[in-house]
């Protein structure tokens, strides 16, 4: 069961079903854009479908499709901030990250695969860049950065490598530079692979430093940071988040509008919230970060485990979890800064 919150909409009070996909297709990931009006879905058939809904009451309609987007199954999709237009990134087991933009032209009616759910021809999407590693390894997660850092996209491979790509000019999406997150003490590069990553959003306390959280199959979570445009990426903290079998399945950095500390959600054999406190620089002019367990939401012995995905709302006051047995739970922050499961919202979501 996949889920995602839109970046700039509140939690819906009702649900709208998407058109049914063929039984032979398996959904690997879904991603809402920042307005919540478009939804990208990648499937086992190497295809990306774009659905749109003009209003909260309107049905979802397929408005775009990319057939054979990759040469292997697609793992994740991610939308860029609208400051950079309609950019969509996808990553695949074929070892590439693809950057897509809509062309605005209809694909035509040459085959049934080019017709939308309403029977009309679909606008085509154009491949603007294909980004890859030197070695052909599966790319398992991809995520665009907050716009304050420029047009950047972070990706991680199945071998435990993390790379940050940057488009040097918004007028030429074919040219991308890259940086690798390298460290002798990298907890994810030995004994296990990276499974997921997420950017720290813009913060009132710190708008210059770029920060990533990466987590892997070993169950470890690591925070990496880059100070300024000329700085280098360095690991500033790590912790054993889910040391059980299969490790961390997903990680989500909580939007921070007022807290003096950061919150990171992780899920796998259970789900937990982690508190991250950033302090002044150390003797090597690197910031110090202390990570500690804030609250366990789902224990590893819960019958709904494993928990596959976690997603925050815009204000960082609600967290959605999707777990085994098609279970969906929503957790809300209380006045005492603890977290409580919202049973009523769960009931409305699955009815």
UniProtKB/TrEMBL annotation:
PROSITE patterns: WD_REPEATS_2. One of its GO terms (cellular component) is nuclear pore outer ring. The keyword Repeat applies. The keyword Nucleus applies. One of its GO terms (molecular function) is structural molecule activity. WD repeats lie at residues 67-100. GO terms for biological process: cellular response to amino acid starvation; positive regulation of TORC1 signaling; protein transport. Its main location: nucleus. It holds the Pfam family WD40. It is found in: Nucleus envelope. Keywords: Nucleus, Protein transport, Repeat, Transport, WD repeat. Belongs to the WD repeat SEC13 family. PANTHER family: NUCLEAR PORE COMPLEX PROTEIN SEC13 / SEH1 FAMILY MEMBER, NUCLEOPORIN SEH1. This is Protein transport protein SEC13. It comes from Noctiluca scintillans (Sea sparkle). The lineage of its organism: Eukaryota, Sar, Alveolata, Dinophyceae, Noctilucales.
